[in-house]
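$ ./design --mode recover --in tokens.txt
reading tokens...
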């Protein structure tokens, strides 16, 4: 009858509208990337020449200051030239940072070191002095995974976000800086589309003015500002943030509400390079394996590879499979001292069901569970059946190592 037909038609349109909206958003993102790259290059290009010009101005202004006697009126003119040149030099420094895109000096970094380092700089003291009504809070848990990048650029990025946050607060308010490990089971579409994977996340949030919808598209462009030019307000801060995040192969998200505040979220991909650092050998001994066999079950290739690499480093013999069915199949023919079991696998049976089937083959099978989400009922159920610790993704070598050790010795 008519009512039914009407409903089908309606559903069709919503689906199409959603697809169109998604396409539009994707185009918007691609355009933004192109535009930002071009603007960054343009801005950076003028910096070198400008720097030379400023150098000459500064040199002569200094000479004038030496030669003009204290009581002479012309001296204050020379002083003004000097001050302006210094301001110009600071802007050129930012432009040069933009020009130096494509960071080449990268190190394995703990982002917490960058945060605590920044809090001890005179730059931060200065921000605090200028914004006495702002309450700065930090929440940086230890055991942060490492990222690969350039400490100077990252510190500058943090500084710009914190400064913007403080400047957005007109009365009293809070600025919160947070770091955390985050495993994304699937891509999320925020301001950028953030791909599935392991990240170290830096968030800077404020309870300030928020950003108008019409400005949200422009804030990362070089020279976009709505601050009165003076000590601050060149509009280069977020351009530097954007460039730095892109050079670190990271992603940005912005959540903002006018009158409520703003949160900038930066996603930096995790590096596993720390696992070859020799100084870690010593404390690794506590949770080293002794050739026991481990079966890794995870539907995502990169996750499987990381787990395999870590566990091999720890001295285990590792076999990996891509889903629960394969795991069951494998254990019909082979033995594993312990399985490292991903909880959520699509398509196919999940971790709990896999474990139930495995227990039918070997009722004493040891296992630890890993998942990107917090402990669910399914996890608890698996633990009731005999599975050991639950480890949250992304994990450091120490947590998976300790969990496996404890389970094997139980
Ligand atoms: N936390 C925030 N809250 C509200 N608005 C913000 C925030 N961060 C950035 N903005 C807006 O984005 C604009 C661009 O920021 P950006 O840091 O690039 O330049 P700026 O702060 O104006 O100048 P500069 O950083 O060069 O001193 C700002 O002028 C402001 O309007
Ligand atoms: Mg700024």
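writing sequence...
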């Amino acid at each position: 009858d008519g009512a039914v037909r009407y409903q089908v038609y309606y559903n069709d349109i919503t689906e199409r509208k959603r697809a169109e909206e998604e396409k539009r958003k994707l185009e918007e993102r691609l355009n933004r990337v192109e535009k930002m790259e071009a603007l960054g290059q343009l801005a950076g290009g003028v910096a070198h020449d400008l720097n030379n010009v400023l150098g000459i101005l500064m040199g002569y202004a200094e000479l004038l200051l030496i030669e003009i006697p204290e009581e002479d009126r012309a001296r204050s003119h020379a002083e003004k030239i000097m001050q302006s040149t210094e301001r110009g030099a600071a802007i050129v420094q930012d432009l040069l940072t933009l020009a130096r895109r494509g960071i080449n000096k990268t190190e394995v970094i703990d982002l917490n070191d960058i945060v605590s380092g920044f809090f001890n700089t005179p730059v931060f003291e200065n921000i605090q002095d200028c914004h006495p009504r702002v309450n700065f809070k930090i929440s940086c848990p230890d055991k942060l995974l490492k990222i690969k990048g350039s400490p100077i650029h990252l510190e500058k990025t943090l500084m710009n976000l914190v400064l913007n946050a403080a400047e957005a607060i007109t009365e009293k308010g809070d600025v919160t800086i947070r770091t955390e490990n985050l495993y994304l089971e699937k891509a999320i579409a925020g301001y950028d589309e953030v791909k599935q994977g392991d990240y170290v996340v830096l968030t800077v949030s404020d309870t300030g003015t928020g950003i108008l919808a019409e400005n949200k598209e422009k804030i990362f462009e070089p020279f976009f500002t709505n601050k009165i030019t003076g000590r601050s307000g060149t509009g280069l801060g977020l351009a530097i943030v954007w460039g730095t995040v892109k050079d670190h192969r990271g992603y940005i998200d912005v959540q903002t509400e006018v009158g409520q505040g703003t949160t900038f979220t930066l996603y930096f991909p995790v590096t596993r390079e720390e696992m070859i650092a020799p100084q870690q050998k010593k404390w690794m001994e506590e949770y080293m394996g002794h050739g026991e066999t481990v079966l890794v079950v995870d539907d995502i290739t990169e996750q499987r590879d990381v787990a395999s690499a870590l566990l091999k480093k720890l001295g285990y013999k590792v076999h990996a499979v891509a889903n629960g069915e394969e795991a069951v199949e494998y254990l019909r023919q082979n033995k594993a001292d312990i399985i490292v079991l991903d909880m959520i696998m699509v398509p196919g049976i999940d971790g709990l069901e896999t474990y139930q089937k495995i227990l039918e083959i070997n009722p004493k099978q040891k296992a630890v569970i890993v998942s990107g989400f917090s402990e669910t009922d399914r996890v608890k159920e698996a633990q009731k059946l005999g599975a050991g610790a639950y480890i949250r993704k992304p994990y450091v070598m120490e947590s998976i190592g300790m969990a496996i050790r404890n389970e094997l010795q139980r």
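exit 0
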